[in-house]
Amino acid sequence: MNNTIIYLIGHYGVGKLTIARAIAEATRARVFDNHLANNVVFSLIREDGKAPIPAQAWELIMTIRRQALIAMAEIARPDASFVLTNALMEDDPMDHTAFAEVVAVAQQRNATFVPVLLTASDAAHDARIPSADREARLKMTDASGARRVRTKRRILGVRHPNRFDLDTTDIAPEVAARLIIEHAEHLA
Questions:
Q1: Distance between CA atoms of 20 and 180, rounded to whole angstroms?
Q2: Is the pLDDT score of 77 beyond 70?
Q3: Phi/psi class of residue 176: alpha, beta or left (left: φ > 0; alpha: ψ in -120 to 50)?
Q4: How many whole angstroms separate alpha carbon 15 and alpha carbon 72?
Q5: Is-contact 188 4, C-beta < 8 A?
Q6: pLDDT at 47
Q7: pLDDT for the residue numbered 126
């Protein structure tokens, strides 16, 4: 995989980071998990995965995220590939902006852009959310809270010709990664 940006989008606990790591291991792509930016702020405000996040935290996180996107667009090697992760919500204008900014970086790099919408069953989400690894990474760990979010908030309705949809309920992360890589390579 060469000069490709894969954007994994889905609700909490769908497997975005695990699949991103599997893609990176198979391709040498660089992972920009949303918590790389989030946790700079979350660690300072003691985000615990359960309490609501103060609204002003998101603008700070967007600033950090934008700096990372500039590094991808202007400093990273031209052949470098990236895997990004995020839970982007249809009802959040900031999430629409975040998606558009990644599309712009892909265009600036003349990269193959692959938005991937990940889904999973409620049972899979419920089993994955309350984990020690998620807690250590300052991620949502409240299964009932995550279920409320899934019920009330729809994931961003991505309209892009390279979109790939994948249900992760019953497939191993390595299998999901292989399917996504095959799709990306077909597009390149």
A1: 10
A2: yes
A3: alpha
A4: 23
A5: yes
A6: 60
A7: 79
pLDDT in tens, 140-169: 777 787 778 888 989 999 999 999 999 999
Q: Nearest-CA neighbor of 177 among 23, 18, 1?
A: 23
pLDDT at residue 48, rounded to an integer: 62
Contacts of 5 (CB under 8 A, 6+ apart): 72, 81, 82, 83, 84, 102, 105, 106, 109, 111, 112, 113, 114
SS (H, E, C) the chain: CCCEEEEEECCCCCCHHHHHHHHHHHHCCEEECHHHHHHHHHHHHCCCCCCCCCHHHHHHHHHHHHHHHHHHHHCCCCCCCEEEEECCECCCHHHHHHHHHHHHHHHHHCCEEEEEEEECCHHHHHHHCCCHHHHHCCCCCCHHHHHHHHHHCCECCCCCCCCEEEECCCCCHHHHHHHHHHHHHHHC
* Cα–Cα distance for residue pair 135/10, rounded to 1 Å: 18
Neighbours of 133 (CB within 10 A): 11
Q: Residue 86 pLDDT more than 70?
A: yes
pLDDT for 49 equals: 58
Which residue, chain included where needed, has tokens 């060469």?
A: 2
Q: How many Å apart are CA 149 and CA 145, to the nearest integer?
A: 6
